[in-house]
Amino acid sequence: MIPVAEQLDRARRELAVDVPLNGRIALILIDNALELMCHQKAADVLERDRGNRTLTPTQRTDARGQVFGRKVAVLKVLGHIPPEQARAINIFHRHRNQLYHVGLRNDPVVGHLARQYFELTIGLMAPLLGKERHLRWEPTLLDETAIRVLPELATASRYKNKVGITDLAERLLSDRHEPVQGFQAALRDQLLARIDLSVADFAIIATGRSGKDDPHETLRRIQLEHDTLEELFKVRRDQDKERRRRGLPEQPLDEAFMSMARGMPILVELNGQLLPRWRPKQAGLPFEPWRKQAGAVGAKADTLQALDEFDRVLREIELLDEVMAEPIDDMHGWHQHMEDVAMDRR
Length: 346
Description:
By secondary structure, the protein is mainly alpha-helical. It has two domains: 2-178, no CATH class; 184-345, no CATH class. Helices cover 70% and strands 2% of the residues. It is built from 15 helices and two strands. Strands 1-2 form a two-stranded antiparallel sheet.
């Protein structure tokens, strides 16, 4: 309980400073605090299941494990976390992983995401931790910060300390800082900014090297090439796995060499063989539909519905960004080559 309370209190104070750095710190703190709460609830569930055995073997494995999403899924099925909140947790956790492992992608809204995650986590304290909790502290954990957050530590003996979860939740919700811009409006604006960046990136490759290609055909081609190469590498990884099982040497593909096949008929032929039912994820230019969907996010009254729609559109944008990455690099390389040729001619 002490780490959960301390981290949520620190997150609350970080959110009082409306800048992205503090939002990033808060998001990480909140995510970890909720993970600890889910771990405790899973431990409680497993303890009760020992004499009853109502959980399936898979549920017991997931409840004991360290994969956050699976643990949340078990608690959702058991009715401890509502489905819409479980979806939101997975979205918030994905953003936490993204900023933690990849870097800054959605910095302008990280504070808004953290605030909503904070409120959701506080709301789950009673369902996950119960009405009252023993603090069970070690002397090394007891300092001024812990006593400030949990004054109960100063008024009872070590083995009799308890905290009312509802009281703690109310204390953590006090003196909250409200941002200037609302949650839905911030998500809308972030989507619009990401769409503008995606439009600018697509413009680099839209008309091809000739400057005369049809942008719709370019969009279809780069998706076909991306999906075909991805499937090809997957097939070869599976083949190498089987070869290792049989004690044979691997035969890895030269990914750089295969990437050079972009724009050539061989990838169209491979697509027909590997993905005979292939369809592009984006059948037409998605930018204007995305803008309309961003506007719908800003108009939603329910915050979790807005978050759901924001995440759906954002995933589509991120997927297209991934699809465009190699063709854009190829285009930059071609332009550099043409500049070098022009310089040689001088």
